[in-house]
Design brief:
The protein is mainly alpha-helical. It is built from 13 helices and no strands. It has helices at about 1-15, 20-45, 55-75, 75-80, 80-85, 90-95, 100-105, 115-130, 135-165, 170-180, 190-200, 205-215, 225-250.
């Protein structure tokens, strides 16, 4: 497949500097673990906050796999402003393949595998801390699938905004970056505007938190709503982001034109 070839070539060029690659992986793993440590300490200090430490660890796993995975394979969307501001996008626009998958497949950021590894360690901690590990694993997979769709959607929205701004905008830093940490905290502690944001506009709560937290509220039984709704919420959000991307494509004008 053409996109696998593109990924392989980019990965080969980045991995050629092995020592630098290994050092950056270690640094990324420490950095990615900080939100889990911070929120875990807060939850352990305030046991009535709405979530247990095990639930925080499971949510952290789902968030990390979605966030780091999307930024690893969607690196080109993360840096889409470089394509629009320098006019590099023009060479992709004349390609016969669909624009979005063509952009996504053009770059990969393997250092994000450190964050994925940190997320898997958090997931292992969460599964060992629950009395229903099998059910917890199923709900974790559901939350992870939704997380991948949500954070891929956020990257796609950032790229869509770049069609208008041309240069880098703050959406990725302010919205996407903040949601990584906020998604680990119990939603009950948020002010109502923030609760509305992560519930109805960006489905962090229904897509990621709810399936994990249903373990304690449902007594271990999985109902159809908890099984299908999180993925549907993530898929709907991603579909909207793709639509925004192609709307932005229609208004884009190359800096060289």
């Amino acid at each position: 497949m053409w996109w696998l070839t593109s990924y392989r070539l980019d990965l080969k060029s980045q991995a050629s500097y092995r020592l630098d690659f290994a050092i950056q992986i270690a640094i990324w793993m420490v950095y990615a673990s900080l939100p889990l440590v911070a929120v875990g300490v807060l939850v352990s200090k305030f046991p009535n906050s709405g979530m247990s430490v095990a639930e925080v660890a499971l949510v952290y796993c789902a968030v990390q796999l979605g966030y780091e995975g999307s930024r690893m394979f969607g690196r080109a969307l993360d840096d889409f402003h470089t394509e629009t501001s320098k006019g590099n996008l023009d060479r992709l626009l004349i390609h016969p393949k669909p624009l979005l998958p063509l952009v996504v497949a053009s770059r990969i950021f393997p250092r994000r595998i450190a964050g994925i590894a940190a997320g898997l360690m958090g997931g292992a901690m969460g599964l060992t801390g629950t009395s229903q590990p099998t059910t917890a694993l199923v709900m974790l997979l559901i939350a992870t699938a939704s997380s991948v769709l949500i954070f891929s959607g956020l990257l796609t929205i950032y790229a869509a905004i770049c069609f208008w701004t041309i240069t880098r905008n703050l959406f990725a830093d302010i919205v996407t970056g903040s949601l990584v940490t906020l998604s680990l905290a119990p939603i009950e502690n948020f002010a109502w505007p923030l609760r509305m944001l992560v519930t109805h506009l960006i489905p962090i709560y229904p897509g990621i938190q709810r399936p994990i937290r249903s373990l304690s509220s449902s007594g271990g039984a999985i109902n159809l709503v908890d099984f299908f709704f999180p993925i549907a919420a993530g898929a709907g959000f991603y579909a909207v982001s793709v639509a925004m991307f192609y709307v932005g494509r229609r208004v884009y004008q190359s800096p060289g034109s």
